[in-house]
Design goal:
It is built from 16 helices and no strands. With 358 residues, the chain is an all-alpha fold. Helix 2 runs antiparallel to helix 8. The chain is globular and about 60 Å long.
């Protein structure tokens, strides 16, 4: 299999910084930044799929070929020349997370392949999931033994997310300032305006829940349901924001423990580039405990790539998370192929390493 460097080189010259700098609308610059990020994500994923097709012939990679057909069908109704706000919803659960065909494609590549991670990040960007895309790219940047050109390209893709987050964080801080002064209605108005512009802004959902709690909970206990809904939205769109993992639900409490005790400490090590094999192993375990199964699988694969071999417990972790995401006969067939000795789709000891730059 040819290395992903071919794909990334395809991506570099066509990554257009101007595309990430659409004319700013004074009335709502955040909407413009969101549109730019979504366009950039759509462009990136389209080009990466082209690269996958070049390196993965159908007869040898049936899962990859089948998923590409699904990818094309999902994007067929999206007109990149139209404003992203008018695009039909891109269902990431159906196309990626809960799709056994997607996971077949993933396991036809070697563990920790940053091309696959960048493909996922591009789809997340196109769907407006900036926080999740940023987390995915941070993991991809720290895949081992990659030429600097790849890391530079991944950082460039991530850069198109930064403008949106900067604008949004500035507005949220305005709402927090009003909240702290006791102007809860003013804070709520700001948070709702942010969410109207960007529905996937997890932090805004969390802060909205906090202000609603103080304003209404004593008057109407039913408002607790609204608070829980906003916290759940934050967990979906910005899952590493541990403050949103609160409430009486035992699943949420267990998830908080996974984040605080394993995932987030290991994430800090990953961001510092320290002990990446164990960092990714701990991220995988903590993510699985929190129900973040897609992150758990990718983290376990990255740990495998850093280690150069499968670790004890790898297959059990993969099986548990795959079954949680996409239970059924296709997943069981995939697990049979990757778990049984001698029937692995991929052996990390034999995968092709990239040529080191001179």
């Amino acid at each position: 299999m040819r290395h992903l460097l071919i794909t990334i080189v395809l991506l570099v010259p066509s990554f257009n910084p101007l595309l990430a700098q659409e004319p700013v609308q004074p009335a709502d610059p955040m909407r413009s930044a969101l549109a730019s990020m979504r366009r950039q994500g759509l462009s990136a994923t389209t080009q990466i799929v082209t690269g996958i097709m070049a390196r993965a012939p159908k007869e040898h990679f049936p899962g990859t070929a089948a998923w590409i057909v699904q990818h094309r069908a999902a994007l067929l109704t999206i007109d990149p020349n139209k404003p992203p706000a008018t695009w039909p919803r891109l269902d990431l659960d159906k196309l990626v997370s809960r799709n056994p065909t997607f996971w077949r494609m993933v396991f036809e590549n070697y563990p920790g392949d940053p091309m696959v991670l960048t493909l996922v990040a591009g789809l997340q960007m196109a769907a407006g999931e900036a926080y999740r895309a940023s987390d995915t790219l941070r993991m991809a940047i720290r895949s081992p033994n990659r030429p600097e050109v790849i890391r530079r390209t991944l950082r460039q893709v991530q850069g198109s997310i930064g403008g949106l987050l900067t604008l949004s964080r500035g507005r949220i801080r305005q709402g927090i300032a009003l909240h702290d002064k006791g102007d809860l209605k003013g804070a709520i108005k700001i948070y709702k305006a942010i969410i109207a512009s960007w529905p996937q802004e997890g932090w805004a959902h969390f802060e909205l829940g906090q202000s609603v709690r103080l304003l209404q909970m004593k008057k109407d206990p039913k408002q607790a349901l609204a608070v829980n809904a906003h916290h759940a939205a934050c967990r979906r769109h910005n899952p590493l924001m541990w403050q949103a993992w609160q409430g009486s639900d035992r699943t949420v409490i267990n998830g908080l423990m996974g984040l605080k005790l394993r995932l987030l400490p290991a994430w800090a090590k990953m961001m510092q580039g320290r002990d990446l094999t164990n960092a990714f192993s701990d991220i995988a375990a903590g993510a699985q405990q929190a129900g973040l199964h897609q992150m758990a699988i990718f983290s376990a694969m990255l740990a495998t790539d850093h280690r150069g071999k499968y670790a004890e417990g790898y297959h059990a972790l993969i099986a548990k998370s795959l079954r949680a995401l996409a239970a059924g006969k296709p997943t069981e067939a995939l697990l049979e192929a990757i778990v049984k000795p001698g029937r692995k789709l991929f052996s990390p000891a034999k995968h092709e390493k990239p040529a080191q730059p001179k």
